Amino acid sequence: DVDTRFGTVRASSGTFAGTEVVHVSRHEEGHRRLSNHVNHQANITALKELGADAVIGVTVCGAVDPDLPLGSLVVFDDLHFLANRLGDGSICTLYDTPGAAGRGHWIFEGPFSTAGRAVLLDAAREAGHEARDGGCYGHVDGPRFNTNAEIRTLAQAGVTAVSQTAGPETVLCGEAELPYALLGYATDYANGVKEE
Predict the structure, then answer these.
(1) 46-65: pLDDT as tens digits
(2) Is 111 within 8 Å of 78 (Cβ atoms)?
(3) CA count, 13 A, side-chain hemisphere, 44
């Protein structure tokens, strides 16, 4: 258990293929927390405090792009997260205290780590499972799924696939200066995209 100023996080650590790894289950054991209850600030702070030097996020997602086959992997290179809010409605930031050291505006042109993306793409090739190189991850609020009209709006904005957890992770990793890469697995088509 890692105590952070945002709450306690259960983490596990070990070695995989000669690399030290720290794992945090965003939904907790048994998927106890729905997406709107995930404590993203605590999770990212715990990873930083445990010495992580990069983060790989994994998400199951609904395809917004009708040409994305189900079962596909996507290594995202862009982010659509307009609300920039956490599940409780507060602003998605680690800098929630006025006057705190380190606060400030920052440019978020490239939300996903180029080096991390390359590692994921290479690993997928080595495993013999093709991964789409690039796509826009669309963060949507949960726990409900989106209506056909909402998905059409996201499609017009260029979103490739949607899910309910990686928007805050991406932003908070950026603030924590933790390179972040996101691998998506398309499990279904989002509402109104096409029949499955």
Answers:
(1) 999 999 999 999 999 999 99
(2) yes
(3) 25
The DSSP code sequence of 64-106 is -STTS-TT-EEE--EEE-TT-B-TTSSBS-S--STT-TT----
**Residues 70, 187 contacting (CB under 8 angstroms):** yes
In single-letter form, the type of residue at position 56 comes to I
* Residue 184 near residue 59, CB atoms below 8 Å: yes
Six-digit token pair at 120?
């994921």
Stated pTM of the model: 0.94
Distance CA 29, CA 36 (A): 16
Amino acid of residue 157: A
Place of tokens 């989002």: 190
Q: Give which of 110, 125, 25, 122 is closest to 76, Cα–Cα.
A: 110
